[in-house]
Structure of Radical SAM core domain-containing protein:
Amino acid sequence: MEQLVKQSKPLILTFKTPLGFYFYETNRNEIVAVNEQLYKYIDAVMQDDEQEIHQFGEEVVCQYDDLKDCGYLCTNHVKEIRHPATDELELFLERKIDSITLQVTQSCNLRCSYCVYSEDGYPSQRSHSEKMMSFETAKKAVDFYFMHSMDTKHPNISFYGGEPFLNIELIKRVVDYAKKVFEGRNITFTTTTNATLLTDDLIDYLAENKFNLMISLDGPKSIHNQNRVFAVNRKGSYDTVIKNIGNMWKRHPEFAKTVSISMVINPENNYEEINRLFNDRYIKKMRCLHSIVEKDDGEMVNYADEYVNGSLYNQFIGILSMVGRFKKDGVRKTAIDEIENMEHEMQKIRYGVLGDIAAPGGPCIPGKMRLFIDYKGDFFPCERINETSECMHLGSLDTGFDMNNINSLLNIGKLTEDDCKDC
Ligand code: SF4
């Protein structure tokens, strides 16, 4: 009964701020500003408060009806929580895997203080080890990918570690083999590297094979060297990385333009200080993506005031630049990455009425977007997933996909179905 009453009311959430009154229209994914009287009337309707409802004059009731006529205050509720891709899941995994990521090694020549694979500090994750993927496993992975990507327009194989270039011989063999298997389908290759092992030969090889390369660099020397140190002597890696990036620009400037910088930001540092990295004559020409350091389960990351203030100010002027009220080149690079993400997310916002069957946004289609294959051939949704987690294990090269686990992950919203239907 209670459920029926809830479902006959508009699927909205009212809220107010010091400056105004609003409701969030779930079906349209929109926030609507209203005047105070209308806000109180909507609240009375939502509370089913007959006595209160009759206190309002005709003008407010008309405003309420106008909103309904325009499609707002919609009472449509989702009847079942189910991911829209559920029925096509098998087809996606059979023919449309977007890309695979191969864990070519678990070894690394650095020991970054925040690395989730470090021997201490992240007990819930795997640790660095000398384990390497064999060519036999990699070959099986390429064959598996070929057979499960017949409808994929832009096939891509990514190499991941540890530091992937510690197993460069395997990478070269995989590239040769995959080019043969995928002949005529324009396969591309991607790697994220700490850039300490970029010799002349390796740079030439990456440029010739048009790798999508991403280099990890956390800030200027004073910040980068706090965390990203060599395993062998715990000395900072900044000078080596900068020298190698400069060399890459000299040898292959066109290729260097396509390389991105991946920053792991520690917000305990000053925002402006972090962005000093982009004073470098080469780095300033490169695209930058960033993330924030992660702590192990339950631990909080500390944000310094100097970081928060600088970051919020740059987000603000970044948004102004989106609407043409500020020059984009006045915005710090780390904020530009955020603004581009924001633009991308805004494009995904969906308008219209929710269907009878829907799912909360969030889960990707596990195994389809970026199937991660570890050194021994086990499957996980992507490289960011904890490899020791059983519920994230999606199968293996030997056994194929574990459809039960994949279905449960895809439909994780089932766990909170009753709450989700009314949210
Ligand atoms: S380079 Fe990457 S894998 Fe190696 S220690 Fe640093 S974060 Fe970890």
In short: The chain has a mean pLDDT of 91. Residues 305-322 form the longest helix (18 residues).
